[in-house]
Design a protein that fits this description.
The chain is mainly beta. Helix content is 2%, strand content 35%. The protein has one helix and 31 strands. Strands 1-2-3-4 form a four-stranded antiparallel beta sheet, with no helix packed on it. A four-stranded antiparallel beta sheet has the order 5-6-7-8, with no helix packed on it. Strands 9-10-11-12 form a four-stranded antiparallel beta sheet, with no helix packed on it. The longest helix has 10 residues. The protein is globular and about 80 Å long. The N and C termini lie far apart (87 Å).
Length: 464
Amino acid sequence: MLGQPDFTTARNCDIEECNGTDRMYRPQAVAVDPTTGKVFVADSSNNRVLRFASGAALANGAAAEAVLGQPDFVTTTWATTSAASMAGPQAVAVDAEGRLWVADTWNFRVLRFDNAASKVNGANADGELGQLDFTGGLVRLTSQKSIGQPSGLAIDVEGRLWVAEYYYNRILRFDNAASKANGANADAVLGQVDFTSDADAIGRNKMDSPVGITITATGALFVSDSRNHRILRFDNAADKGNGADADAVLGQADFISNVVGYQARNGLYYPAGVSYDNEGRLYVADGDGNNNRVLIFNNAAAKANGADADNVLGQPDFTTATLNLSASGLSTPLSVFADNAGGALWVADRDNNRVLRYVGQAVAAYALTVSKNGTGSGAVTSSPAGISCGGTCAASFSAGQSVTLTAAAASGSTFAGWNGACSGTGSCTVTMDADKAVTAAFTANAAGSPSPWLPAIQQLLLKK
């Protein structure tokens, strides 16, 4: 835990100083440098980004080693726009080359810091998007090069930068972002049909104040569409045209609903940050609307619309929404970051003025693998969703979860039974306390078998 000396302290930054090397004021985001393991925190109300030593080496309340956006650890002013200043940064991301990207939210731009792990205090940014130059002032016209209140960042494996724009209700994509000139045009847009539209709306290709974004190694983009109380998924997002439809939704039953999901397992209430780990889990900071929790969706890329979350952090269950100052509690968590290399989950616990790290069982899951054999054919599906075999025959589920498999024989085949972790010919329920494997056997019906209706037809003919 960073920002506080222990799990039961939360300084009141409205009446005491929350600057310095070991304090934070409403931290909004956290990211880990994959090249060095160093931790970057968007310390929003102090108008700065803090850099900490490798996450694996940190102790509770550790001091930051460097600061960006301010000349030192004491200064917290909202300064004149420059290459070294920040105003309320709300998102950070670090790419595979160690470049730090910062959503400098109230300067309406994204800053780039090359070799961020070695930058000195108050160093200048090396590039920016959203403004024509570092001192150009605020540009708020909706266009291909403007960025309206950036609130979320993601970098994909091809070096594309994705920016969630809260103010313009859209997601911008910048190809080869590190090589872009200052103020360069975006290459594509989602949430709007073109670069000059910015209306908020509900629908399959619309958004209302998107906040967080994350992208998988296979190119699925998840967007936290906050005021529609949902998460949108865009498969193969880099191939999408401007204004393309989303492929799935979580938090709502369909693409035309935006019901508030307060204290619900399948609902969201102004969701904020999102992150995706290399085991297929999606983490959602469901904290801005007082749910005060992080939801975990296993095998998120295969979830059906409106699917239940599989696990929750910050609350003892899915129906509690209590503010809590403890090692297991949260107060308005706004960002999550899955540190795959470090095996940890980081959470920016904003109103407790701290950043938390979860390791071990907090992110544990087990693999369920389904195979089919025999002379026949058929399909196997699971509840909760994840297995759909045919196509998807393996999925991760949280530790202790019960998963029910159902087999359906194809025409001309019969389901013969389960082997492995299940037996019999009924439904198969597996408790995920370890990796499990199940085989479904299907047999082909004998060729030329008489129709069950044939005897009745013969009798009718004889009587006639």
